[in-house]
Amino acid sequence: MCTRSEVLSLAPELVGIINQHELAVDRELLAAAPSLRIVANVAMGHNNMDLTALDEFGVWGSNVPDAFSEPTADHTIALLLALARRIPSADAYVRSGRWAEDGFQPGPWDGMLLGGKTIGIVGFGQIGRAVARRAEAFGMHVIFNSNRGQDDPRFRSLDALLSQADVVSLHVPLSPTTRHLMNPSRFARMKPGSVLLNMARGPVVDEEALYMALDKGRLKGAGMDVAENEPRIHPGLLARDNVVFTPHIGGGTVESRKQARLTCAANVAQVLQGRPPIHPVNRPPRPRAG
Hints:
The protein is α/β, with parallel strands linked by helices and 290 residues long. Helix content is 37%, strand content 13%.
């Protein structure tokens, strides 16, 4: 993986850039790359791209919206199960040798039954709907909040969802309106004893506010595949055994990575052949020609 300085040094020669979402595509980069025709993310997200600047410079941006939906939904449920059944703590307990010393003690390890609980899904796109299907298989009731679907009986306003859900699962893109979507006032509206899952983007959650909600006992726990300032984690969250972390791996399976790379390469090939990418994230009015 190239550093930004390395990309800038190569920029005059580039006709296409493939990246994992880590490269900031801004005016500086675009101005340094006069032959650039496409920036292709091997990811669903594209908040690393200045779409207005891409349009102005005539450069396509693309993503891979389909490859990671199902594995990300799998990982969402994995985090929920880890929290509900206290799996990381139980695993550490067994490995420490204390189970052999203490003997069978079922009561302290009793967890939360998912059946009959309500999961509130914030963001009901491909991933959110895939999470809903899995949650329903566990006997959970699904409600959701989204920009669309208000005529669905499961739709709730965000405040209503937070007050009703035993589990709140975040699946929204990062934007100015979703940054710190979960802030002190929103945590105060959550149902006491509920669980938060963040499979969206780290800055969607104000981690200091999350820490305070957990510290005050308002929330039962949290599952986090992303972090506000990743890879750095709020130290107060690291100290809590009712928070389960994974290092931004939610969509990563062997199969999904392969599919994403093939789709990304197809996006680039389309543009280099003079056609729009399969999955554009912008529509430049005058795309650069080869």
